[in-house]
Design a protein that fits this description.
Length: 320
């Protein structure tokens, strides 16, 4: 594994030209399947997952997919998952009542608030196309409202952090423009950030100006709210990432192209290898709390782990 400590300046007209998806997709042989806990039934239309997240205010776990936003059953998990949250009460993945749009970008932005981006579905007319811009839901994805950029922008990645005054900062990656965009007013207005080809981005909830991105050159970090990025010295080559909350100790957690999990002690530069997924996953997310959990969508389906990937429970099985 090769890492680099050189600095990347990605503001203004600077652009890293990378073929991240192609580079990461074929760089390693497929690993053996890791240990698995209880398995779950499969559902036909539940596939092509872009994002995973959980809402501690409702106890619901979500998957943003090519066919809309679904609620994921967590009945096979112990009480340590989303401890203190209401029970979602599902035993099967369930498509939300809202439009079945292609949720290219999806995040649980705050308790009770979902943000998404992507394209309208072929058989619905409630969302503006060809790109829906930034949309929000406060009723568990039953209805969606446009926030901004309707018809214009397709954010392939979204993340959000709370600023000290209480406003929500939203980071979005516009794949067509190859640029990070930043909003400090709940997504209503936007300013341009760094031009960079990335696969995933994740903001630090403890330090809103700090946002991480995975690139072909390695894990990069911005300390100026996405305006410039620099490679993280000594970091493993990561593919999908998230940032742990303060209750879990902070630090980046991510998956490399071979499906191996890595986690960092916050700010230490020390990385620990965990378990692995079954192949390179489509989506990955951190679920906070005193007992942190990880969600992933890999070849088995949607899986969850509370020990950094050493063991997994299959929540929704992939179709054979």
């Amino acid at each position: 594994m090769t890492t680099s400590s050189r600095t990347l300046r990605l503001g203004g007209a600077a652009l890293i030209t990378v073929g991240l998806a192609a580079a990461l997709a074929g760089c390693a042989p497929t690993p053996a399947a890791p240990p698995t806990g209880t398995s779950a039934p499969t559902t036909a239309a539940f596939e092509h997952i872009h994002g995973l997240g959980a809402d501690p205010s409702t106890g619901k776990t979500y998957a943003g997919t090519h066919q809309g936003v679904w609620q994921v059953p967590t009945d096979l998990l112990p009480d340590s998952y989303l401890a203190g949250a209401p029970e979602a009460g599902l035993t099967q993945p369930t498509l939300s009542d809202g439009p079945a749009f292609d949720a290219m970008g999806f995040t649980v932005a705050a308790p009770g608030l979902l943000l998404a981006s992507g394209h309208p579905g072929s058989d619905e007319s409630t969302l503006v196309g060809p790109n829906v811009g930034l949309i929000s839901s406060v009723d568990a994805a039953a209805t969606w409202s446009n926030v901004s950029l309707a018809g214009k922008t397709d954010f392939h990645d979204l993340d959000a952090v709370t600023l000290p005054p209480g406003a929500l900062r939203v980071y979005g990656y516009d794949a067509a423009a190859g640029r990070v965009s930043i909003s400090d007013d709940d997504g209503a207005t936007w300013s341009p950030g760094a031009a960079v080809a990335l696969r995933d981005l994740a903001a630090d909830p403890a330090t809103p100006n700090r946002v991480f991105a995975t690139t072909e050159n390695g894990l990069a970090v911005s300390k100026d709210a996405g305006r410039t990025f620099a490679l993280v010295p000594g970091a493993p080559m990561l593919y999908l990432i998230d940032v742990q909350d303060a209750a879990a100790g902070g630090g980046v957690v991510g998956i490399d192209p071979e499906g191996v999990l890595w986690h960092e002690e916050a700010g230490s530069g020390t990385w620990t290898r965990g378990g692995q997924t079954d192949g390179s996953p489509e989506a990955f997310g951190f679920v906070g709390g005193s007992v942190p959990w990880l969600l992933a969508a890999d070849r088995r389906g949607v899986v969850a782990s509370d020990d950094f990937g050493l063991t997994w429970t299959v929540l929704v099985a992939a179709q054979a």
